[in-house]
Design brief:
94 residues, alpha+beta
Length: 94
């Protein structure tokens, strides 16, 4: 009986903790792979900008924060939630 209870606890833990986190990580990786020049993004530090160039190394981008001002940023530092909210707000105002 204790073995069944332990198995049920592990199943509940997997359903509510591990599975959603893995799904979110997969979604983040897919979002980062699909970034292109011209996309408006927000970093996890709150820096807003437009992608000017996706670098050849595949892990960094050149972010234009204001006309003529560029930063080299890791793709992993881009906030998916904030970037999607920014793009939704821009699409809604059009």
């Amino acid at each position: 009986m204790q073995l069944v209870l332990l198995g049920a606890m592990i199943l509940v833990f997997w359903l509510f903790m591990i599975r959603p986190q893995a799904k979110k990580a997969k979604q983040a990786k897919e979002f980062q792979q699909n970034l292109q020049k011209g996309d408006k993004i927000v970093t996890i530090a709150g820096i807003h900008g437009t992608i000017n160039k996706v670098n050849e190394d595949g892990t960094t981008i050149m972010l234009e924060t204001s006309p003529g001002s560029y930063m080299k940023v890791e793709k992993s530092a881009i906030s998916i939630e904030w970037s999607q909210a920014l793009n939704k707000a821009a699409a809604a105002s059009k």
